């Protein structure tokens, strides 16, 4: 949103009484918001600030508590705040003062800084008293001083309570006095002094000579653009115009453009004469009507020809004056109106033109008829009043376009398509031939092709040859599973998640148990999921009022599957009902595949069996296997990440190997293991032919039976007979070391090394992937959060992705806040949010090329953008046009953004930073009509407290709502996009956010809170290595998450309540775990750690979790400690210490110091498939916490094996080595013993292999160094050993992964 548009938007907020609320707040100094201080002990004192600075700018830049003032000073123009500034006294507001102003106005820092430069300058100079450098001691008990803002004075009082500054609309207290800045004395104050309504500042008479200057200063750039587009640009520079202009805001113009586009009338705006006619409805020429004059009129003629004003065809506006407001409203054709929101702006050398800003585009009845907004019968078309939800448009979620052909009718579609001959014969056999031939009303048929029918019949024959005959008997029922009556759905118009009722009888579509299909749209195509089957759409035939979507599989409802004996339908009565159709053998339960086919809760593992080709061996009734079968919820959660891998690796055979290995991990082929055969501590070796065996450990305790590979799952149903085999149901998917290895490799694009940076790129930084680049740049956290909504994080983490990203800064996204907010303001449009966001984001991504700045610097260059490169040549695909001139490089769509010369190299991709959000024409057409009535606020959940409206709340957050999981909630709430982006930095945590069964409480800071947080921007500051950054990040993120409980607002409203937080609930009872303390009083609920944040009364239900909006980022005391960094202050030794043993490399050091087991494991790993990855990791500085051979032998003995056996097994399964060795390696820094301090935390393993990580907390550092770990205290034995760039620290125990 342009600067002027923001002004207009903020002006609307002002009318709601924001200025008054600010005045109330500053009088009470915000005491109604923040609770009284309680037990807050800062972990560190801020450094004492110097009292002398070269200038005011230097002072503001040097002090952390003046960061916002510093930003505002940089936005001013005119006054000199540098070293040569004249003598003055300046009362400079601190950050808390500005935050109070932001809350009162209801705006963000970015929005404040986007106010006109003139307004910001006047606010700042209102704090300055020129020519009088007054120290505190020079101030009188009461004095009035003239400020640098002409016509505005301040009153200063001084007494025992301190120095107060009294302004027209606020008052402030001096909190820090007598700071010398050049020839100026600065006093820091706790409140911003407000000279006037900053959101609607007064316009001085005679301020504008021309209409163009006035409209630009008023922030009405869209109106200026419309005047130029209409060929009327000359009027903008005239100084002699006489008349009245009703000037619509930017937002009003955008709303009208969108409404017209949604009603297929947007094309009219391409014609200058149409735009001229609409603009004419805002102009009354020849007479200057001030607001008082307008209020006295009942009607006003408008148009470019004053001679027509008195004719019967005159364009007329109706005036409504409300003295209670007071307010003036102008109306055009029925349903069209606009209110005057800023009046009496005089323009011209003789001030004979007056401008009134209005909040809507005016269209008279005559213009409405010409545009077709009023129909021939006199009825009014629904424009520009908000229209109902537009019909689904083609998804832009990354799919290829489904091919489309056209025939006259449904009969022709089926009869003339050879691949549908089987469908035709079956329709005729079912007696449906006449219906097919005569169909002349809207209908959709999902038509299986011949190959689909052949595969279907082959499946039935494999189960039992008699099933084919049964299928022929019920063919009418099966065909009805493919028909929707009443709508014609082109596959290209289907949207992800769309539900379509199915069946020949549309009167049953609203039944609770109606048969439906769910649509999935992703990068590989359009898919349909029926109740027990699924299919992909191959192509579409438009057949008169009907549509035929050809699919590659036969769809089956539960009724059809039950009639075929494939599943059992639940009975509604207590006694069994005979099956009307005979069910042939084999019956469900004869085989493993039979059990899975008959159990809806195992459909997910059934699909995995089909994909891997193991259906045949598992349908053998004579095998004696044990299958540990994850239920659907578990498979669905796991499959979400697998789908991303498969999407990015469409032709990689390792994907199938991964699926095969996942299934193999759950199969025990050595016999039948009933629950009575399982014992605590038992190790089972699972696997099938050609896969590495997996050791699965059994744990039996009072809470149940558990299985552990690299993770732990629970047996939730046991001893299900499957012929001679047994099936046990699990609540999770077992992940073997081999599965973990494949996931890591495929997630990293197969382990390929990133390509060298493109030549000629003025790159400011290089990163391994797009995700790494965005996650490492806090100014792009908003764009990162938006990308997370697309579900494309797996692709973004690949170093092999080739693309060009145009990434708006946080400020740019913040300025587009109203556009983004429109996505979530009305639940009616929720199904379209993904589609709209994909178009929004797709406009910023060009796939297939990494374009350098030099590549972009070509005037007129066309760049197709979008999430689907296959659509780049389509006529309606979004294309950006480059404007390159002496001032820089710009990208043009419906708006123009500037490309920064600074670029980020991200693997094989390039990221260009831009200063605005790109808005494509397609996006404007897709946006929901503004002003739609929001749905009623959901009623409070039983037990919840009602919203406490009198209490202060954080800046505008989303209304309470309900979503299926945390990720859906965050990605559907624009004000939480930033926190969603923050979550993406931890892949493990982010993967859990789309689990509807996750039970947690999330304290989510709003976008504004993240934007203003110093903790966010300080994560990388002074960090010695990436591991320290990761520690800080995980502590910051974990401080906002409480796992294991979904706490309602009522649960939080308990003063003194303690809430442990963190990413690992197993550490919640640890002494050093972060704990939030609740402060609950009459003003609201707050959370206290290293700072205090306020909890909004609005909550979001997300599956089994609850999200609370908070007004600031939680900064724990542990994070403050991490941000301060480890101190290294070794005491000088009175005598020289013996030199540390030093070796050229790690293997030499291990052998030389007797760590032979570790050396053997190193050799085995280097010579294995993961050797290159290992050597790459170990090329960085490392710290190896090295257990002795004896310690390793003791540990392996406790695991019922020997080192020799372990080593032999590891040569074929090197991931075992990672499980033993990685908990001992810290990558990124080589620590000496002197660098450790008590309380310091060292994390081992590496990114992507966090499952093997361990945390070592320094517990003692006196006569010896002792770490607290998950295996208990671990003591350093002896001194360090230097090994190339690494250091070895001998320890007395083997470390184990914390997870």
From TrEMBL:
Key word Signal present: yes
FAS1 domain spans which residues? 53-193, 407-555, 589-734, 767-918, 963-1114, 1142-1295
One Pfam family from the record: Fasciclin
What InterPro entries has UniProt attached to this entry? Adhesion/Biosynth-related, FAS1_dom_sf, FAS1_domain
The region annotated as signal peptide is 1-23
- What name does this protein carry? FAS1 domain-containing protein
Against PANTHER family, the record matches this protein to:
FI19380P1, PERIOSTIN-RELATED
Q: Which residues form a coiled coil?
A: none
Ranges of Pro residues composition bias in the record: 383-393, 929-939, 1129-1139
Listed A to Z, the keywords are: Signal
UniProt region (Disordered), positions on chain? 28-50, 381-400, 929-963, 1126-1146
Record has Metal-binding as a keyword = no
Q: Which organism is it from?
A: Chlamydomonas reinhardtii (Chlamydomonas smithii)
User: What's in the GO CC field?
Assistant: extracellular space
